[in-house]
Amino acid sequence: MNPAGLKRFPSKDGPAATMDRLVAAIKGRGMAVLARIDHAGAARDVGLELRPTEVVLFGNPKAGTPLMQAVQTLGIDLPLKALVYEDADGKTWIAVNDPFWLAARHGVQGAEQALAAMSAVVTAVASEAASG
To answer: For the chain, which ranges sit under pLDDT 50?
Structure first.
């Protein structure tokens, strides 16, 4: 299944190595890692099981702020997020929201150049992390 607006990248390695490479790729492009959310760890803390599932929030205010100035509700979807997870078959994936889809969701107009740059960076970091 591939929900609308979601880009998925199969990883050659497991979730931990993939997330480490993803964080390194994000930082390597000068973006900030704002948070890491370990959903599987939170599930374990309350006695539930969940395959490896972790989200990283990242971005650059110079890129995101002008978009939020245009349409402030975009702030619900920024900073950017990437999900690293292991599926039922043991395959590791990286999933990211397509910035163009996010912009369309919020009705952002006239920001094609900024969105293209954001989309290229999201694809680059996910591809780099997935391929190792």
So the answer is: none
CATH number, domain of 15, equals 3.30.310.70
Are the CB atoms for 51 and 87 separated by under 8 Å? yes
1 occurs within a structural domain: no
**What per-residue confidence (pLDDT) applies to 1?**
63
Report yes or no on 76 lying in a domain: yes
Cα separation, 39 vs 41, whole angstroms: 5
